[in-house]
Design goal:
44% of the residues lie in helices and 12% in strands. It is built from 17 helices and twelve strands. The protein binds pyridoxal-5'-phosphate.
Length: 432
């Protein structure tokens, strides 16, 4: 007998949360750490939204509510999705969840059996791969290439789908790359799915970054392509676009009311419901005319930071950083820095067990944190399977311009500090 169920060994994690202990260690040593690791806007939720939730609470709207989500909020979400995707969504296809993370697990629990194949982007949000392995499904990572701006084509998708495919995960704009799938890309993918996949195959379209697009781009969803609303679970929420990560407000739009009833049933079995006064705040976020200006101001700031950080990183020898078109991340290739600092040799020299626990980019990540006070995320934090030999870091630009400038300057100094890296390996003994 063992204490912990065997299946839990196959559940992954999100390192952005796990890195907190290392950051705390550095803070306890008196370092000031620049947190490029966090995927949370450095803005507060808007006063007009806060006010509604506070008033609702004071009115006594503090009990259990409909496990699918209160009707006015589901109506607001249905109206928003119908308008922005050009499809007809009714509230009985909407389920409100505590954040946009739960619909990922709900989708796996609802549609995926052990042995089914799941196609998902890699690098991608780590929770996708985590649930593939937890569910005993077969991972089919779709490797995104730097050269293609971290988008992928219909042909690449076609090469990954088979008669065993049950779920295809898309995420645009993407965490961690900021890549955006164009309407043409999505049209091609929709064609592949319509022609090659059984009607019961589902697409999980993670659209949590729908509001954060640059260069005047408009959000595109695969659900808007002909025939795709019947096969797509659209997931979104208020965490990113409305700077409301701590509110835990997310939602899924299901292809049918019957499938929505299954998501509701999972809510009943796990969280019961999302606090109703928060949902009223969420409704205000979608319905108030003030929200558009708030979102635009925030996105403008992200775009200005992107316009600074990409050339600044590209000026560092050994770093190559493509220009993201959405979300608030940059995903530079740091292979050159790994080479200059001797990270690749140090990685090769690690004992096997230690090598399995890290990657060259992971060693660089820890060096930047422990010696230069810059917290980043390594490539392997966004899907490990098939990612060997890929040397990237993700930096969140949800930080003040001042911190971004200082962080990039520190990375530049670190990128030349070969002696410092060698000393760090001995002194910290992280992989001893
Ligand atoms: C692609 C993606 N999907 C889902 C989520 C989860 O969002 P939430 O905080 O609303 O649960 C995140 C958060 O980082 C994300 O990046």
């Amino acid at each position: 007998m063992s204490l912990v169920a065997a299946r839990l060994r196959d559940l992954g994690t999100e390192n952005a949360f796990k890195l907190g202990a290392d950051i705390q260690k550095c803070v306890d040593r008196g370092m000031d750490v620049i947190r490029f690791n966090l995927g949370a806007p450095d803005f507060r939720s808007a006063p007009h939204i806060n006010r509604v939730a506070i008033e609702e609470l004071e009115k006594g709207n503090s009990g259990y509510c409909d496990p699918a989500g209160i009707l006015p909020f589901r109506q607001a979400i249905a109206a928003h999705v119908s308008r922005t995707r050009g499809i007809d969504v009714t509230p009985d296809r909407v389920v409100v969840t505590p954040g946009a993370k739960p619909p990922i697990s709900y989708t796996f629990q609802t549609y995926v059996d052990p042995g089914d194949e799941v196609v998902y982007p890699s690098p991608g949000f780590p929770i996708y791969e985590s649930w593939v392995t937890y569910q005993g499904a077969t991972p089919v990572p779709l490797q995104l290439s730097e050269e293609a701006g971290f988008a992928f084509t219909a042909d690449e998708l076609a090469a990954k789908v088979s008669e065993r495919t049950k779920l295809v995960v898309l995420c645009s704009p993407s965490n961690p790359t900021g890549g955006v799938l164009s309407r043409k890309d999505l049209e091609g993918m929709a064609e592949v799915i319509r022609e090659r996949c059984h009607p019961d195959v589902r697409v999980y379209s993670d659209e949590i970054y729908e509001h954060i697009l640059f260069d005047g781009a408009q959000h595109e969803s695969i659900a808007s392509r002909p025939g795709m609303a019947d096969r797509t679970v659209i997931a979104g929420g208020l965490s990113k676009g409305f700077a409301m990560t701590g509110w835990r407000l997310g939602w899924a739009v299901l292809p049918t009311p019957a499938e929505a009833a299954l998501f509701k049933q999972i809510n009943i079995n796990t969280v019961s419901c999302v606090p109703p006064f928060l949902q009223e705040g969420g409704r205000a976020a979608y319905e108030s005319p003030e929200t558009g200006t708030v979102v635009r101001n925030m996105v403008d700031q992200f775009e200005r930071r992107r316009n600074f950080v990409v050339p600044a990183l590209n000026d560092i020898e050994g770093i190559r950083c493509p220009t993201p078109r959405g979300a608030f991340y940059v995903f530079p290739n740091v292979a050159g820095v790994c080479e200059t600092l001797g990270v690749l040799e140090a990685y090769d020299a690690l004992p096997g067990a230690a090598r399995a626990r890290t990657t060259p980019a992971g060693m660089l990540q820890m060096f930047l944190l422990y010696r230069y006070g810059v917290a980043t995320m390594d490539r392997a934090s966004f899907g490990r399977i098939g990612a060997d030999g890929q040397h990237f870091l993700r930096l969140s630009i949800a930080n003040s311009m001042e911190d971004i400038r200082e962080g990039v300057a520190r990375i530049e100094r670190a990128s030349r500090d070969r002696e410092g890296f060698a000393a760090f390996l001995v002194e910290e003994g992280l992989w001893a």
